[in-house]
Amino acid sequence: MKVYNKSERIVRNRKIMLLAGIIATLLFSFILFSNRAAAETNRQVYTYYTSYEIQPGDTLWSIADQFMGPDYTDKQDFIDNIKSMNHLLDDDITAGNYLVIEYSSYDML
Fold first, then answer.
1. pTM of the predicted protein model
2. Contact by Cβ (8 Å): 106, 45
3. For the chain, N or C: smaller number of CB within 10 Å?
4. 32 or 80, which is more confident?
């Protein structure tokens, strides 16, 4: 067993305290952010539908950027939903036509 002199004990104790502080900070951060995430998933999400006129230069991806809400995490899933609701077989859309868009919000209208 190694015998530590006073300066070595001080350095060792400081390292231990630093490590304990880092672990405590990480634990506190994890608890804080996991509670926020749980609160966010418990919020009521309202679903709405709107008619959208396709503008020149619009793509399904750009429309998804405008309307994708908190109930979708994957843009491709949102686009697939638009295609399904509007009976589209591919990604081709034409300016001047209308799409029915399902969107969601935490706010009740």
1. 0.58
2. yes
3. N
4. 80
